[in-house]
């Protein structure tokens, strides 16, 4: 099987190639361009599924650029080449990233009417996917920085996609400032690590790390920069701006990229393992703060996308809370620690599905009415399907029982309760408030006197895509154990056993 | 195939939950069947404001949690004040987060 | 002490850049601050690879085998290019903001709360 051997690099190369092919093909024919883009995304999705299946069954897969085996290294014996390393955890994240991008691309086929604009849109979208997949699959620190910058630049361009809107420009500028400062801090941290160990490979650095003061500084810089990209509490403020003013499908991609940065954060955390108890507590407390602040700020918002963005901050808080409190028992999390981490990772999947569905619904509402605020009312009379989708998304995001959000939140609450009951109680209160917020949104948008203006029809592709998301929410809600055992548990095991990750390189 | 999600002390089976939910719906349906028969169709859409016709301006759903945010006025004033939306502040918070984590880890 | 001067310069550059980003209200000055931080980090990378008395790491007809490390130079080159792209994107955003609102003051903002 040569395809599976080259799958990690193909996952990065195909979107990069397709990104720059898109505007050229778009010059010829816009239908051909759509075809090319969808083919590229489907092949990426196929490769991601193949890779995950292989990695879960056969263990870690490494890919060395410019050499046949990772062992083919410099005379001194340490890896100098760029190495891509895939284990169950990366594969899970790359699966999420590629699926969500495919869904968003199909949604945008009819969401944006101007076909000429879509050339640029799809170029940026594929570049964003390149950034996400590269950030996920790479095992090299400098490569990580490069993909982080690709991610930042393409998402900033996507946020400011409609340049005639001043708010979009403003939020894109803010996003760009904050993320380039974060990325430069990452580069500085990489420099600190390189200066001490003369290595750039993550696994090799993790093997020889000493825990000196400079290591701690580097770890701090890395962790806070990736917390910034994920949007945890003290550094969450770019998030409502960016998510609220970007076109709605772009918000879904931004959310996915935030989850990818969370993955990088957890990976760095576990393979370095400097002072894990304290860092786990810091993560848990930041998670609680995110939950509390996210829901309480969402309650007073009047812009729909901004409101969903604030609840997205709260959802990120749940992930950080679960994984952080599991990592408190780091060297060998068993029992509750293991449940907490797998709950947190399960919530990554659920979070993309729930909030992605809600953002896509917000986009559909914008498509219908041209409004972003809550003063619409009575849309359920003419759009019952949309209302049902919204109810499903609302139930899932606030953790109501038959939906997927409940399963992961149950795992998080229960195991966090054994760490500290107060944290679990605040988490549950946050969920209740989340339901209250979305009940308000539902009644503001869908209930009441029928919307008076004549409405367009929502295109079938948009509805189909939202339907797929809603169906997968229900499916995961009904059979949580299926997903948990097949994907999440291997991912958790891969995350908490950094030894395997390190030994695969050396 | 094991469909029950086992956590450390409990378990969660959505199928049983759905069956229980259906049962509850059935019981409530039975109760609903015993209800008033002579209700009029067509009045459900009129807004109901403690028996009076609604006042001129429509109270919208976005005002729904007015009491909640009014009761937490002090908190909200503080928190909204922190979200000033100035880009310099964002970077300042980032630096502050780095400083806090560094102090906690390195000392 | 003399060895540390480049590292002190790195710290000073990053501090100047952060000062610009934190306290300047003019958006272009913020972008300049980010560029200065970037220069500081680049200087740091170059400094890491320096070996005393080393020559440029080009093997063909090298006068001696004592060379500075090639990896940080490759990293710096990449990072400079990335920095240029980022700064160009930000400056174009500033231009558009100026066209749209007629001002580039960071405290005059529309998104808050």
Order of helices and strands of chain A: HHEEHHHHHHHHHHHHHHHHH
Strand content of chain A: under 5%
Q: What would you call the quaternary organization? A: heterotrimer
Residue ranges of chain C: pLDDT <50 for 5 or more in a row? none
The helix content of chain A, as a percent range, equals over 70%
Task: State the order of secondary-structure elements of chain C, H for helix, E for strand.
Answer: HHH
Strand order of the largest sheet of chain A: 1-2
Instruction: Domain count of chain C, please report it.
Output: 1
Can you give the mean pLDDT of chain C? 87
Describe the biggest sheet of chain C? none
Estimate the global geometry of chain C from the Cα principal axes. Answer: elongated
Helix segment tally of chain A = 19
Please provide the count of β strands of chain A.
Answer: 2
Which CATH architecture of chain C would you pick?
Answer: Orthogonal Bundle
Q: Calculate the terminal CA-CA distance of chain A, rounded to whole Å.
A: 24 Å
Please identify the top-level CATH class of chain C.
Mainly Alpha
Structural class of chain C: mainly alpha
Helicity level of chain C: 55-70%
Main beta-sheet strand count, sense and barrel state of chain A: 2 strands, antiparallel
First and last CA, distance of chain C = 49 Å
Features:
heterotrimer; B: 107 residues; mainly alpha; two-stranded antiparallel ribbon; 4 helices; 4% strand; C: Helix Hairpins; 3 helices; 65% helix; 0% strand
Question: What would your notes on this structure say?
Answer:
The complex is a heterotrimer of chains A (506), B (107) and C (113). Chain A has a domain at 286-506. Chain A is 77% helix and 2% strand. Chain A is built from 19 helices and two strands. With 107 residues, chain B is mostly helical. Chain B has a domain at 47-107. Chain B contains four helices and two strands. Chain B has a two-stranded antiparallel ribbon with strand order 1-2. The longest helix of chain B has 20 residues, at 14-33. Chain C is mostly helical and 113 residues long. Chain C has one domain (2-101): Orthogonal Bundle (Helix Hairpins). The chains are: A mainly alpha (506), B mainly alpha (107), C mainly alpha (113).
């Amino acid at each position: 099987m040569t395809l599976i051997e080259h799958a990690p690099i193909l996952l990065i190369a195909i979107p990069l190639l397709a990104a720059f092919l898109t505007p050229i093909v778009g010059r010829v024919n816009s239908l051909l361009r759509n075809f090319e883009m969808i083919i590229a995304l489907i092949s990426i999705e196929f490769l991601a599924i193949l890779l995950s299946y292989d990695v879960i069954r056969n263990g870690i897969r490494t890919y060395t650029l410019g050499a046949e085996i990772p062992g083919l290294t410099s005379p001194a014996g340490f890896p100098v080449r760029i190495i891509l390393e895939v284990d169950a955890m990366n594969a899970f994240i790359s699966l999420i990233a590629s699926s969500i991008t495919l869904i968003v691309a199909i949604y945008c086929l009819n969401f944006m009417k101007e076909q000429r604009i879509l050339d640029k849109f799809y170029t940026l979208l594929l570049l964003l996917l390149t950034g996400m997949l590269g950030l996920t699959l790479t095992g090299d620190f400098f490569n990580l920085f490069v993909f982080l910058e690709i991610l930042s630049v393409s998402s900033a361009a996507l946020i400011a996609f409609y340049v005639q809107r001043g708010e979009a420009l403003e939020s894109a500028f803010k996003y760009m400032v904050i993320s380039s400062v974060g990325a430069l801090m990452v580069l500085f941290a990489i420099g600190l690590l390189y200066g001490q160990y003369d290595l750039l490979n993550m696994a090799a650095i993790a093997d020889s790390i000493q825990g000196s003061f400079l290591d701690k500084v580097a770890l701090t810089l890395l962790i806070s920069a990736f917390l910034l990209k994920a949007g945890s509490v003290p550094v969450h403020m770019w998030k409502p701006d960016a998510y609220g003013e970007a076109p709605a499908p772009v918000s879904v991609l931004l959310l996915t990229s935030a989850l990818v940065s969370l993955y990088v954060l957890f990976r760095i955390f576990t393979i370095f393992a400097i002072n894990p108890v304290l860092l786990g507590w810091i993560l848990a407390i930041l998670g609680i703060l995110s939950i509390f602040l996210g829901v309480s700020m969402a309650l007073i918002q009047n812009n729909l996308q901004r409101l969903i963005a604030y609840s997205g901050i709260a959802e990120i808080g749940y992930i950080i809370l679960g994984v952080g409190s599991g990592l408190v028992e780091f060297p060998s999390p068993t029992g509750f620690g293991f449940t907490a981490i797998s709950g947190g990772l399960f919530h990554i999947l659920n979070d993309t599905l729930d909030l992605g569905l809600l953002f896509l619904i917000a986009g559909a509402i914008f498509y219908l009415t041209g409004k972003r605020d809550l003063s619409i009312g009575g849309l359920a009379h003419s759009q019952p399907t949309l209302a049902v989708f919204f109810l499903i998304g609302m139930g899932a995001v606030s953790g109501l029982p038959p939906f997927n959000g409940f399963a992961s939140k149950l795992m998080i609450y229960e195991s966090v309760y054994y760490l500290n009951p107060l944290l679990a109680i605040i988490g549950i209160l946050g969920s209740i408030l989340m339901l209250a917020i979305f009940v308000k949104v539902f009644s503001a948008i869908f209930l009441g006197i029928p919307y008076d203006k004549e409405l367009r029809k929502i295109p079938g592709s948009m509805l189909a895509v939202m339907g797929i998301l809603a169906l997968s929410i229900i499916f995961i809600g009904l059979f949580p154990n299926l997903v948990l055992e097949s994907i999440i548990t291997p991912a958790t095991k891969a995350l908490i056993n950094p030894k395997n990750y390190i030994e695969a390189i050396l | 195939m094991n469909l029950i999600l086992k956590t450390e002390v409990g378990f969660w089976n959505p199928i049983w939950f759905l069956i229980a939910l259906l049962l509850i719906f059935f019981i409530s349906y039975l109760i609903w069947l015993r209800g008033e028969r002579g209700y009029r169709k067509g009045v459900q859409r009129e807004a109901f404001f403690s028996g009076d016709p609604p006042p001129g301006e429509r109270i919208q759903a976005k005002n729904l949690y007015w009491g909640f945010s009014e009761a937490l006025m002090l908190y909200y004033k503080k928190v909204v004040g922190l979200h000033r939306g100035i880009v310099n502040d964002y970077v300042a918070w980032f630096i502050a987060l780095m400083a806090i984590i560094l102090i906690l880890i390195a000392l | 002490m003399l060895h540390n001067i480049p590292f002190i310069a790195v710290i000073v550059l990053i501090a100047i850049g952060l000062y610009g980003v934190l306290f300047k209200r003019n958006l272009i000055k913020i972008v300049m601050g980010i560029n200065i931080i970037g220069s500081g980090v680049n200087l740091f990378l170059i400094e890491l690879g320096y070996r005393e008395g080393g020559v440029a790491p080009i093997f063909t007809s090298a006068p001696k085998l004592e060379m500075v490390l090639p990896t940080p130079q490759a990293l710096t080159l990449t990072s400079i290019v990335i920095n240029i792209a980022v700064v160009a994107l930000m400056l174009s955003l500033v231009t558009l903001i100026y066209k749209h609102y007629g001002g580039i003051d960071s405290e005059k903002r529309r998104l808050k709360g």
